[in-house]
Structures are given as structure tokens and as C-alpha cells.
Amino acid sequence: MLDEITDENGRAGADGAPADDHGRFVAALGAPCLLPSLRGGAWNALAIRAVIRRLAAFPSCREIQLSYHPENAPAARLCAELGCAPTGDFEDEEAVAARGVASPIA
């Protein structure tokens, strides 16, 4: 379940840190997205699917973009599974993948 981040609940999520083998792929500010014990496997896909559904509910949202380090093969596979295709663009050192919101998320 996704909840809005508030002053009351924000600190608990900010205490997370990336798993040892993900440290070079997770920005310090992105680390709190999932607790270390929940990262990997199906949890990432479930969380990202929930975020995509929530963003797609906004009438002005036409496209979802995700980015990942090119050496992070699991992230590239997850983007493809979510229907995101590489755009050829890069944000800093990260490859950008995108999908329209008209099609349902798998």
C-alpha cells in the first residue's frame, strides 16, 4: 500500500539503506524506497507497479519514465517486464526507459 509521505511517517522510511550488492545502483536519496529486507525479487516489481498505477491515474500523465544504471541487468529486465522500452536517452549515467499510460500495467 502506498501512503503519502508526511512529517509523521517520513522518518521511518528514511532510515533504510541499500542492500550491499545494490549500493552502487541506489542513490542515497533513493535508498529509502524499500526496506533492505524487502528489496529484490517480486517486491520491487510490486512497488513500481503500484507507483505506475498511481501516477497513471492523473489525467495529465501521458508517459511513465524509469531510469537505471546500464550495468544493472535486473533493473533493465524489470523495466522491460513493466512495458518500458529504452528511449536512448540518459539522465546522468542512467539509461531512460518509458511507456505510455494508455495500456494497462501487467
Total DSSP E strands: 3
The global form is: globular
Order of helices and strands: HHEHEE
The proportion of residues in beta strands is 15-25%
The DSSP helix count reads 3
SSE-based structural type: alpha+beta
Mean pLDDT across the residues is 73
What Rg do the Cα atoms give? 14 Å
Level of helix content?
A: 25-40%
Outline the low-pLDDT stretches. 27-32
- Which sequence of strands runs across the widest sheet? 1-3-2
Terminal-residue CA separation:
18 Å
The biggest beta sheet is recorded as: 3 strands, antiparallel
Keywords for this structure?
single chain; 106 residues; alpha+beta; three-stranded antiparallel sheet; 3 helices
Question: What is the secondary structure topology, with strand pairs?
Answer:
Elements: H1 10-14, H2 41-56, E1 63-68, H3 73-81, E2 85-91, E3 94-100
Antiparallel strand pairs: 1-3, 2-3
